[in-house]
Amino acid sequence: MVTEDTGFHTKFKKTGLVTLPELSEGPHYLTINVLCGLYDYHGAPPGAPFTPTFPGSSDYIATWTHTIHFKIDTFLVNPDVNWVEVTTLTGVGGIGSTDSFTVDHVDWRIRWKIEPGDSSARTAFQAYIFPLTGIKGSEQWFEKIEHYGTEETTGILNIYNHSGSFYMDVLTGNVDSYTMIIEQNIDSIPEFPSWTPMLIMLLAVTVIGAIYKQRLHKRNHRRS
Q1: Which of 67, 9, 5, 6 is nearest to 34 (CA)?
Q2: Partners of residue 25 on adjacent β-strands
Q3: Among 33, 54, 78, 90, which residue's Cα sits nearest to residue 185?
Q4: Count of CB atoms within 10 A of residue 47's CB?
């Protein structure tokens, strides 16, 4: 949709892909040099940045440069196919609670990253994980992230044999922002305690004994 007729229109628009070499983590920029030509043009002079190829020529050319700045962040890339993202939680420095989230598989993890502030104060990042069973504040946390300093700004907390709905209380110091990616291992299955098979066998023996006792009682009753 043209809102203002500038006298210059793109007749054929094309898109393409440019293959870049493997880039390291961090900021990068891409410089695009554009060369445009108007040939055998007999209208009013197009003006800057177009200039005639030579004085009095009906051919015009123009060049300009675009610079695109971008950042490679490998933290956002998950190379493990069996780990599937549940949700991403972000926040700024301070104290607060995250949104709740639900994990269907028993093994899951939290990949976290912080952006430290410029203050000389000590950098701290703490996240306490609570089961969402009722009113927030009434539950007991069962796992936590506790990190201090700026030598490491990323980490992973692995959690085993827990599924359900959860939330986190986050406390930070000298942290501008944080990101936590919740991922679950779709290949994980519940791990039963070592006494579980014994309990199942005991229940089975109890049920069989009760059935046998009931049948024996009926047989004796008929004989009497």
Answers
A1: 67
A2: none
A3: 78
A4: 11
Burial class of residue 112, CB neighbours in 10 A (0-12, 13-18, 19+) = buried
Report, as ranges of residue numbers, the positions in the chain whose pLDDT lies below 70.
1-12, 136-137, 190-200, 209, 212, 216-224
50 contacts 7 by C-beta, under 8 angstroms: no
Starting at the edge strand found earlier in the chain, the sheet holding 51-52 runs 26-38, 60-72, 51-52
Residue with tokens 């009434």: 138
Q: How many CA atoms lie within 13 A of 185 on its CB side?
A: 14
**What pLDDT digit, counting tens, does each position of 78-92 carry?**
778 899 999 999 999
* Whole-number Å distance between alpha carbons of 52 and 46: 10
3-state secondary structure of 84: strand
- According to the model, what pLDDT value does residue 72 have? 81
Complete DSSP assignment for 48-64: TT-EESSTT-S-EEEEE
The residues near 91 (Cβ < 8 Å, ≥ 6 apart) are 98, 170, 177, 178
217/37 Cα distance (integer angstroms): 105
Helix or strand holding residue 164 (H, E): strand 164-173
Torsion over CA of 213, 214, 216 and 220, rounded to 10 degrees? Answer: 130
> Which domains can be identified in the chain, with CATH numbers?
26-72 (no CATH), 78-185 (2.60.120.1540)
What is the separation, in whole angstroms, between the first and last Cα of the chain? 100
